[in-house]
Request: fold
Amino acid sequence: MENDPYLWLEDVTGEDALDWVRSRNDEALAELTASTRFGELRDDSRAVLDADDRIPYVARRGEYLYNFWQDAAHPRGLWRRTTLESYRTPEPDWQLLIDVDGLAAAEGENWVWQGPKVLRPGYDRCLVQLSRGGADATVVREFDLESLTFADDGFALEEAKSRVGWIDADHVFVGTDFGDGSLTTSGYPRLAKRWRRGTPLSEATTVFEGKPDDVAVVAYHDPTPGYERDFVARAVDFYRTEHYLLGPGGELTRIDVPDDAEIDVEREWLLVQTRSDWTIGDATHPAGALLAIRFADFFAGSREFTVLFEPDEHTSLSYHAWTRNHLILATLTDVKSRLDVLTPGEGWRRQPLAGVPDVGTADIRGTDPDHSDEFLLDVSGFTQPATLHRGVIGGELETLKRAPARFDADGLTVAQHFATSDDGTRIPYFVVGPPEPDGPALLTGYGGFEISLTPSYSGIVGRSWLARGGTYVVANIRGGGEYGPHWHQSVQKRNRLRVYEDFAAVARDLVERGITTADRLGVEGGSNGGLLTGVMLTRYPELFGAVVSSVPLLDMLRYHLLLAGASWMAEYGDPDDADDRAYLRKYSPYHNVAPDRTYPPTLLMTSTRDDRVHPGHARKMVARMRELDLDVRYYENIEGGHGGAADNEQRAVKWALVFEFLLQRLARGKCD
Reply:
C-alpha cells in the first residue's frame, strides 16, 4: 500500500471520484432502504429530531434568551429570541431574527447555520457565520440586532476557516485566508489582524504572526467593563498554546504558564488548569489541577496560587463556569457528575450546588457572568429525558422545561461495569437495556482528544435500538477525559494501541458477563471514534458481528496531508517521522486489511462536505475492501460537513441506515 492505487478518490469533487461515490450510494440505498423497517426507523428518528415539544435550549445575551430551532417546516433553522418571562410559559413568544431557509432560498445557497458572535456589552449587533453544506469553512456577515437586518456597511468575510471576534463596535480581530502564506499547514489562520470598520480587509493591521507549522493563531478581546484586555493565543500543536497579553501599543507579554496548560481570565482572576505536573516555587501541582491567582498579582511576579481542585484516582475536573460572583466546578467521579460552587476571595469558599438532583448527568448549559449569578442546569440520563432548570446561586432551582419521553424505558436498567485491559487498567463502561438481554448489543466509544462520554438521553437510540430489544453500551476508554489528563496522555502517539486494547477488553467483558455474544455485538463510532471502529474491524474482527464507521480517519500514513489532519499530530504522531510511521502502520486500518482474514459486515459513512476529516479516508477503505471482495457498503452524504448531515431529514436518513444495517446483521427473533 505504499504505492496507493486509490489516491484518485482523494479528489473530493472530482468527476471520477463522485461517479464512484454515486454508484456506492446507489448500492447501499438499494440494500438498506427497501424494507418497511427502514421507513419506520427514518420516520422515528425524524419525529425525535423535529418534535415540537423538544426543549428549546437558550443562551442569554443581555436581556434576551437566544435559540436556534430546526423542525420539519424549517429544516435549515430559525434563529430567534425571547425574554425569560415569556420563556417560562408553555408557548414562548419568539422574535424571529434570521430564517436560514428563507435566506438560502433567496440567495440560491445551501446555507447551514454555524452560529453568531454577539458584541458585548451592548448586544446590539453580531457576526453571523454560515457555511455551504455544513463545512467548517464559513462566510461571515454582520447582523444588526436592533433593525434585524444584515448591515450594508458591516464586516463581512468570504468563505474560509476564519477566526473573528469583536473588539468594539468599529473594530474586530480577524484571522482568515489573506492569500498565499496566511494559513498554517493545518489550514487555519497563521496571522491575527486588527480590522477597522469601513476599511478594506487588505488594510487590516497584523498584531501577531505564527509559524507555518503551528495549528492556528487567534487574537481576542475581553470586553468586561473595567477589565478590558486583549490577548493572543498561538496554538503550537493541538495541546500546547502560548498565551500573550496584547498591550495597547501592540507589545506582547507572555503569560508565563506551561504551554500545555489552559488559562481563563475573568475580571481580576487568572485560572490555570494544568495538563502536566507543574512545579513552581516549593509547590508541585499535578496534572488536572485548577489553580487561581489574582491577575495583577501574577503579572507583578507572584506565584502564590490557590488550589481550587486536585484530581484523585477516581475524580477529574470536567469544566468550570463563571457567574457574576461565583465559580461553578463540574467534576466526574467514575464518570458520574457533581457540581460545586466556589466563592472567590482569600479563602475561596466551596459548597455543593444546591438542589442538583442526584440522578443522571447534570450539566451547566449557560451562565450570565456579566450581570448576575444566574445559571441554566440541564439534567438527563440514559433513560431519563432532559429537564432544564434555572437557578441563582444561593437560591432554589426553578424548572423551566421538561422533555417528554421518546421511548418506553420501563423495564430497562442502567448499570456500570469495569473491564480489565491488557495492561491491567480498569475500564468503565455503561450498559443500558433489559436486565436479562436476549437481543443484539451496540457498543460505542471515542477514546481521544480528552473528550469524555457521559450518560445522556438519546431518543433516536431509544426508539431505534432499545425499543427493539437491543442493548446499548458506552465505553469510557483511555484517550478520553473521564479521569483527567493522564487518562488521555497515557495513550497518545506510540501508546495508541492501548485505546484499542481497552475497547476490545470491553467487548470481551460483555460476552463473558452474558450480555451478548460476538456475532450479536455491533460497534459504531464517528471521527476519531470512526478510527476506533476501523481498528476494531482490522485488528479484532472476531469480536464483532457488524461494524459501522462514520466520518472516519482510516489512512494514518497520510492523514496529516489531508485537510485539518496536520493539527492532530500531537494526538497520533507524525507519519513523516520513521519511528512514528512504524507504530502508525501497526494500526492504520487502511493498511491492515488483509486478504486472508475474515471480517464482519461493515458500513462506512461520510460526507463530501466534511472539510475536517477528508472523505478520502472512507472512500479508499471501501475501495480496498471491495478489491478483496469483503462484505462492505458505503454511503456518502453530498452535504453535511463533519457531522455527516446538514438538516434533520439527512440526519434521520443517516441514523436509519445505521440501525437498519445493524438490525439486519445482528438481530434475531423479536428484534427482526
